[in-house]
Design goal:
With about 375 residues, the chain is α/β, with parallel strands linked by helices. About 40% of the residues lie in helices and about 15% in strands. It has helices spanning about 25-30, 35-50, 50-75, 85-95, 115-125, 145-155, 175-185, 255-260, 265-270, 270-280, 285-305, 330-345, 375-385; strands at about 20-25, 80-85, 105-110, 130-135, 160-165, 190-195, 210-215, 230, 320-330, 350, 350-355, 360-365. The strands form three sheets. A seven-stranded mixed beta sheet has the order 2-8-7-6-5-3-4, sandwiched between helices. A three-stranded antiparallel beta sheet has the order 9-12-11.
Length: about 375
């Protein structure tokens, strides 16, 4: 008898996922287990039962206790972790807290997430700084060119490097510790967009050698939507502030982030339920299942389309991006249309991405998926881009 956890369609009932839809896009928005949503509802009920006591007496201690649970998943001390709504919000806070001057430079990757690219451009233009992009080779089969590119891009005017841990478009797990070592040796501060990392890969954030790290919990750690985490190295905490300056300005990190005014914190307070769900199956077992299934699905799509993946298997985890046949000249609006077409005409949720001048389809693997979920996509994708 197998001792493997009962993953696959047996787990569909743990979620509110619609029947009749191929849910292959966990990486974009996640899916929250029923038990976590119920826990969030219970916290909301407690908040509404006595708002004064909840906000004035209880909330601060509850959030700090939850941060300690988070530290158990991703490393470090609870006092060095704060909650934000999503990775974009946390990274905006980091960039906005920097004092930049005309001529300063910010490094990012060619596969930078679109929202973060906009944030960097906005803040750079206000300061008269410029953005320098470091190329991520496609397909990604060897970290050496990227590491050399990072080293070559750093100049005396480099003010900040903001790099992904797992890229969104290419689903590439980057050699972050090696990148951090290069930045640290050159005196460059490094902020990390770890939107896809918590729950998808094993993490010990302080051991990476970065200055700031932001990750979503609502993607791969089963938390409710609007739950992300921000780590700040102790020596950087005094200068870091949330984008919404509020009552606790000057009270230090993470107090400034914990309370920015009246808001619904129930999703954050339900994080222990999400971590209990993940831990109940075994975080390592979940990661192993998802990575193995993503690799099998990626191999199937590559073979069916006579195509290629955006990264070698050793640089992927629970997501894989495969180039769509006949998709030269990919544009963002076309990618959006194809994503909607997959959903509306074929009842398949998957993400079409623009990468290296072509269209790529990124699929995710989660514990409610089985390999059969990807077979229909393999046939549809042969003609989708055309």
């Amino acid at each position: 008898m197998s001792n493997l956890p009962p993953f696959g369609h047996a787990r569909r009932g743990d979620f509110l996922l619609s029947d009749g839809v191929g849910h292959l896009n966990h990486g974009s928005f996640g899916a929250t287990p029923r038990i976590v949503l119920e826990t969030a509802r219970e916290w909301r009920t407690r908040m509404e039962a006595d708002p004064d006591a909840f906000f004035r007496r209880d909330l601060a201690g509850l959030i700090r206790a939850t941060a300690e649970r988070v530290a158990g998943l991703v490393g470090g001390r609870g006092e060095d972790w704060a909650f934000v709504e999503n990775a974009t919000s946390g990274l905006n806070a980091i960039v906005a807290s920097l004092a930049m001057e005309p001529g300063d430079e910010i490094l990012c990757l060619s596969q930078v997430y679109g929202a973060i690219a906009n944030a960097l451009r906005y803040h750079a233009e206000r300061a008269g700084a410029r953005i320098v992009s470091v190329n991520v080779p496609v397909p990604f089969v060897d970290p050496a060119p990227l590491l050399a590119g990072v080293a070559a891009a750093i100049t005396p005017r480099t003010r900040l490097a903001l790099f992904d841990h797992i890229t969104s478009a290419g689903a590439v797990v980057l050699p972050l510790a090696e990148i951090a070592a290069i930045c640290r040796a050159r005196g460059v501060k490094l902020a990390v967009d770890g939107a896809h990392a918590p729950g998808q890969i094993a993490l010990d954030v302080p051991a990476l050698g970065v200055d700031w790290y932001v990750g979503n919990l609502h993607k791969w750690a089963f938390a409710a939507k609007g739950t992300a985490i921000l780590w700040c190295a102790p020596e950087r905490q005094k200068a870091l502030h949330p984008t919404a300056i509020s009552h606790f300005l000057g009270a230090g990190f993470p107090a400034e982030f914990d309370y920015a005014g009246t808001r619904d914190n129930s999703a954050w307070l339900a994080v222990p339920a999400a971590l209990d769900y993940l831990g109940g199956w075994g975080a390592e077992a979940v990661r192993a299942h998802n990575a193995a299934l993503a690799r099998e699905a990626g191999d199937m799509l590559v073979a069916a389309w006579d195509s290629e993946a955006a990264a070698a298997p050793e640089f992927c985890a629970a997501m894989v991006s495969v180039r769509l046949p006949g998709s030269a000249g990919g544009q963002r609006d076309k990618a959006h249309r194809l994503t909607l077409r997959l959903a509306e005409e074929h009842a398949i949720a998957a993400a079409v991405m623009v990468l290296d001048g072509a269209l790529w389809l990124r699929v995710s693997a989660q514990i409610y998926n089985e390999i059969g979920d990807y077979r229909r996509l393999a046939e549809i994708g042969k003609t989708l881009a055309r």
